[in-house]
Amino acid sequence: MYKYFTGLKGILRFFSDKKMPSHAKFYLIFFLIFMQNMENIR
Questions:
Q1: Alpha helices in 1-42 (DSSP H)
Q2: Is the separation of the CB atoms in 6 and 13 below 8 Å?
Q3: Domain residues for 24?
Q4: Which of 15, 36, 38, 41 lies at a CB distance of 3.0 to 4.6 Å from 20, suitable for a disulfide?
Q5: Which range is most confident: 1-5, 14-18, 33-37?
């Protein structure tokens, strides 16, 4: 499971493999932006 989260490509591949609907991909992008902002604050 953790191998999917080694990078952005891994996460995108994980969601594409799960056949996620479009709104799930939207939340994925929102989550990635949120995590990036947290790293910038830190």
A1: 8-17, 22-41
A2: no
A3: 2-41
A4: 15
A5: 33-37
Contact 15, 5 (CB under 8 A): no
Distance between CA 18 and CA 33 in Å, rounded? 21
End-to-end CA gap in the chain: 26
Report the number of distinct structural domains present in the chain.
1
Centroid of chain to Cα 16:
11
CB 3 within 8 A of CB 10: yes
User: Nearest-CA neighbor of 16 among 1, 28, 6, 32?
Assistant: 28
